[in-house]
Structure formats: C-alpha cells, structure tokens
Amino acid sequence: MAIDDKTRTELEAATFRHLLQHLRSRTDVQNIDLMNLAGFCRNCLSNWLKEEADAKGLAMSKDESREAIYGMPYETWKEEFQGKATPEQLAAMAKVNPGH
Predict the structure, then answer these.
(1) 97: CATH
(2) Among 34, 56, 84, 87, which is most buried by a count of CB atoms within 10 Å?
(3) Interatomic CA distance for residues 42 and 48, integer angstroms
(4) 23: Cβ contacts below 8 Å, ≥ 6 apart
C-alpha cells in the first residue's frame, strides 16, 4: 500500500494515541513488567516524547512528558497504581535490562 507522508504521519499518530489509551486503561500492567517483556515502559515513552520535543526546540519538562503519557501526574499514577516490585521482577529486570 502506497501512502503519502502526511497520511502515514496521521496513521502513526492515531496508532500512538490508541497505544496510550490502552496503557492508561491497563493500570494493572506494571512498568517493570513492560520493561521485562518488551524492553520499554511508560517512562521510556515519556522520555522519547521529551527527547523529540527537545530536538524541535519545544519546552517540555520531564513532568509534562510523563503526564502526557500517563494521562495524569506521574506521582498520582504511582500512588494509585504502582505496586511494589517482587524479587522475581527485580531479578528479571537486572538480567534483561542491566543498568536500567
């Protein structure tokens, strides 16, 4: 399928918004589980968003990028949804994502 750049960008943006909505609805899925399975998490997405904003000369704080991804302030999300990592999760994180 051949599509123009504008349409591709629109499709990618819509897909990204869908991904964010999915992650926001799946608060049961912890970031450490995402990291251990996929190698990225909500925080990674927020960091990538901030990096792209910075590259375009747009002012975006770390808190603003996290709120854009989480749909709420990060501290609120942590208080409401973040569980304590199990020893097994931490061990998997150390093995799969050393230094993260």
Answers:
(1) 1.10.3340.10
(2) 34
(3) 10
(4) 29, 42, 45, 69
